Protein: CSN8_PSD8_EIF3K domain-containing protein
Organism: Loa loa
Amino acid sequence: MEMIHKKLLAEWNKEPKILTAVSSALKQAKEVMENPETLRGLSSAALHTIHRDVYEIDALYAVLQSDLKAFREAISVVMNFYDCYRSNEESPNKFLMIGLNLMYFLTTNQHAQFHMLLEQIDQNVQQNNPYITTPVKLEQSLMEGVYNKVVLTEKNIPSPYYALFIRISMDTVRDEIASCIECSFKKVSQKDAARLLLFNSVGEVVSFAKKRCWKSAGNTYIFEQGLSSPTPKEQLDTERIAKQTIFYAKQLEMIV
């Protein structure tokens, strides 16, 4: 088991990682761990380290694969391991794992679970550990609708493993903004659409517009419903949100 553990660590620590090799080593390690005979003779400290490393790598590998289902299962195992098998030596990846779990809850709209987990974290850690402050600030930005800060978060993530969850958050934000645009405007230029949707280029908005099936006339997108929405209250709300988004987009341009 110790040799298999070392092989897994060796593959995982390679840069760039060869994911097929990591997958093979990870699969082998998990299979061997299921056989009690292979673990006999190992000290409790060695067993703790081996299990911890395998579980953590499994979760991080799922992130690299952009596999949210696998991540959900793997991170649950990691969290249970931390709770049930405490050690004098805290895992150096503990707050990275907790932070990624918070990011997962946030991007999958599991706000109750997000706050339940957050309440278990010491206030000092919440305020000073970048792995924890990042999801906390991201949630605040999303709740307040300050979407330019979501973009800035993407540029200042504490670990590359956060990138997947930031991208998911940005996709959600852009879908919400797009819905507001569709209800609030009769037409909008590609340039303005790119600014509203917090894209860096017109090319990005063109690809996005195709996915939304937006109709275009030259460099302008046309929305059939536009401001003719039959419900005045909804029209007012979406127009306000759209104007707010324009304001934040201009703020972003000034900051960047």
